Amino acid sequence: MTQYSLADLNAMSAADFTAALADIYEHSPWVAEAASTQRPFATLAALHAAMAAAVQDASAEARTALVQAHPDLAGKAARAGTLTADSTHEQASVGLDRLSEAEFARFHQLNDAYKAKFGIPFIVCVRRHTKDSILKAFERRLAHGNADEFDTAIEEIVRIGALRLDQRVTAPDQLPLNGRLSTHVLDTHSGQPAVNVPIELWELSAAGTNRLIWRGVTNKDGRTDSPPIAGRPVPMGTYELHFSVGGYFSARGVPLSDPPFLDVVPIRFSVAKPEGHYHVPLVVSPWSYSTYRGS
Amino acid sequence: MTQYSLADLNAMSAADFTAALADIYEHSPWVAEAASTQRPFATLAALHAAMAAAVQDASAEARTALVQAHPDLAGKAARAGTLTADSTHEQASVGLDRLSEAEFARFHQLNDAYKAKFGIPFIVCVRRHTKDSILKAFERRLAHGNADEFDTAIEEIVRIGALRLDQRVTAPDQLPLNGRLSTHVLDTHSGQPAVNVPIELWELSAAGTNRLIWRGVTNKDGRTDSPPIAGRPVPMGTYELHFSVGGYFSARGVPLSDPPFLDVVPIRFSVAKPEGHYHVPLVVSPWSYSTYRGS
Amino acid sequence: MTQYSLADLNAMSAADFTAALADIYEHSPWVAEAASTQRPFATLAALHAAMAAAVQDASAEARTALVQAHPDLAGKAARAGTLTADSTHEQASVGLDRLSEAEFARFHQLNDAYKAKFGIPFIVCVRRHTKDSILKAFERRLAHGNADEFDTAIEEIVRIGALRLDQRVTAPDQLPLNGRLSTHVLDTHSGQPAVNVPIELWELSAAGTNRLIWRGVTNKDGRTDSPPIAGRPVPMGTYELHFSVGGYFSARGVPLSDPPFLDVVPIRFSVAKPEGHYHVPLVVSPWSYSTYRGS
Amino acid sequence: MTQYSLADLNAMSAADFTAALADIYEHSPWVAEAASTQRPFATLAALHAAMAAAVQDASAEARTALVQAHPDLAGKAARAGTLTADSTHEQASVGLDRLSEAEFARFHQLNDAYKAKFGIPFIVCVRRHTKDSILKAFERRLAHGNADEFDTAIEEIVRIGALRLDQRVTAPDQLPLNGRLSTHVLDTHSGQPAVNVPIELWELSAAGTNRLIWRGVTNKDGRTDSPPIAGRPVPMGTYELHFSVGGYFSARGVPLSDPPFLDVVPIRFSVAKPEGHYHVPLVVSPWSYSTYRGS
Predict the structure, then answer these.
(1) Domain range summary for chain D, segments of one domain joined by +
(2) ipTM for the whole complex
(3) A&B contacts, CB < 8 Å
């Protein structure tokens, strides 16, 4: 993927600008073209706003075409490899390229039901989601009315566009798209940050097919060198952080029972706002712990 | 199983006493017979001590015969249904009657290795154990020396005898055999005991075949009407308590995110002393919780 | 003070019954007399209800006389020693017999303002209060309307009567008059109840004249042999529990900084419902602690 | 006080350099003079090390003279106003200029006892201390042997010199002299940082003359815009942080008892290492709280 600076984009011909941002909105270069006339943009936020406004101000036909240009989620196009590059990456990020046959069938069935009711494909900004939260959204949105659902599709398209723009363009400012999931471990037995505690982050699935999505270890501040999730939305869903405190206390020579009362401490929590900051610390002794949503 | 009062046992003929307690020690009525001469017993503890002393004071031949009288754990006798009634119940209590083929093969292999090394069957007081902790004990004890391991076998036999005696005889006193696992839930959002919180107790297994072993709900004191485990040893092993707090707070009308930050709170801990008291409370708000080993 | 059993009171002549309970309502034996006709009483609650009903059903003149029969709080009668025995004990329980000149002047001024506005003495059930909460009640009630305040005076009189009755009469049942303040200390460094931790309970005063009202030490369960307050109302007010954990951890040989990060841990809380159960535990390591309103 | 950059000091004549740093060591310009020959210094640490080495390498007579050049703590010179400017500010920082007559007499007596035993004035780096910790150090050091105590005096002089140098000289590096005391408040009722919580920091004194030394309020991150103590040592001593959470929860419309169970939450802790980082957070709901030494 070629990256452009905002300055470069401002300096390009209209045609080059349109080409550079042609695929921000799926198969719809006219969105970039409409925005090109309002250059120069002082900020990425202004560029995004101009493209979003082009979508909002477009004719009903153009908006419908934009919606129809989107592929099915986990659909046949994905299996056939005929998606746009962006759609391919996005669907893979949430595991839609690795569905079991049962899951594939479930998506197929929901896609069909959705199209039968609304006449448009089901569109969701998958990078803000887990497989489980997409299925929940599918079921919730199937109950909506037609007009609402068309508006929701447009909203999701604008979110998709914003995330694509954020990856394509370097700029002085940032769009408020990114969440953060971080943790730290305090050892209340010694009164110090807990150093060298292995941590795993698991994405839970109602179907029981939990997925290890991050692995790290605490540094001398009891934090991880980089947070489990940063620089992108935190997908809506349910997670478990696993802290291996038994080995940590044992390595420090702390007297423990055998097996230790606490060995791997799981903390299960759900994310509702992908753009939120979720700090989930562990304050722990060999016989007690606490956690809270921090900031 | 017929139960006897200590007074009845004191008043019986020696032969009846011996018959009544013949199977406290596996296939070895001579233990009861030896104890019969020291009647009357003021306490169950005194009766147990007399039987244990009879074992300790017996000849090397008699002690060896006692050890050899025990069946294999999860062995062919169990499959064939030729165990004593006590052994059958004990092995079932820990799931040894419901092993997968792979597990059965593993036990078979360990039994053989143990008998090849020590010349005696592997004996463990299964009611103090989970399947996982038996496998760990098997591996640990395979590394022991011969003399130590014979002593360990006798110790375990005396523990088995104590638990059988406790079930067979009613007496004014109790043997210190029973542990306790209890919990309670405090709601720090309202400052009150959390009422009607569903709780599950899972026994975890390294093989991933976790087992739901208890289900309850908190009463108006935030406790459960009866504790998850009481009146028996708490089997050594690793457990998770699952507290369904999301539904609890939602039912109280507390504003929550969707999905709630905390829904099912798992607390994972291990039990090292089956005779210990494990109080594992949950102090919880919609955004934080703490737990500790209480008493 | 002579105590009577409910059975004795049921069996007495009406005159003896009235004499026995003459001073439950201040200078108003007619309340007992009215209740005497409804004997026998199956419970203390029934006796109390009968006396309270006699007050409620009395003529306006009788009710006014009852209110007027009460002495000033911390007034000249108290200094002159001309109060009833009950009033003397009650006022002393909250320290009204040990006021500074400034405090005495403040009460005098409030009594005068109250009588000037309402034409009756300020009546409050002092055993449910601290000096500070009485002053706050004084100020709050001075803002009331006349009718409300007369009703409040009657309510307080009935509360005083209930507490006097509870002390005077032994019965199978108890009136729901008594609160409870308890604590326990869990050591999360060792995973055990903290034994031999000295605890103090202080009653705080806005004027800064804090008062040590209880001293104890934790037993082998981490609790105190008897709770700081039990068998009586917990006076409304603000308290601090002081836990001397520095010496406790030091005596156990736990490595500490010098001075220890935590030495005396103060927990400050207020009591709003004198009949409530306030369990205020301390869960503590040398470097952390938590507390919560338990039950 | 004139400040110099390290570059300026490196470029000066030896005489100007010595004059600029003459009073870093009390009445002893020869320390600066000795260091002047080793210029240029790449870092403040190197300059400090050179001056400290000059003290360590000086003759016994010169070292003794340096020690003797120091004034009494809270002594007559302080009252007479004849201290150096640095000593005046240092003694004032810890309140030695505002002693009661009883405290002044106590210091006088300890100074005399110390000089009678050791023949030198009692020297301590007061900026690392509170009045209480100075008195404790006085008593502890009176029990030392002569040689040890002379070494301790030199150590404290070097600490004083380091802190003076840190204030006098701007440089790319910093000496590891400064501690930090910080806090933050998490609201577990709403799952957010607690905003607008008033906080006070009190220095406790065994004599009961507690001193309010800082007042702040939490910002939108639940932190204070600047920490209670930063950019200087955290004086050894005992402190209380007071968090006014009652008003905070009340302002948010959270239902509370009257008075609220928790209103002002005091957290009492002691500082042993003035160069340490003490993060003392409050994690609080209307009915519970926890704290820990964080980092």
Answers:
(1) 4-170, 179-290
(2) 0.92
(3) 70
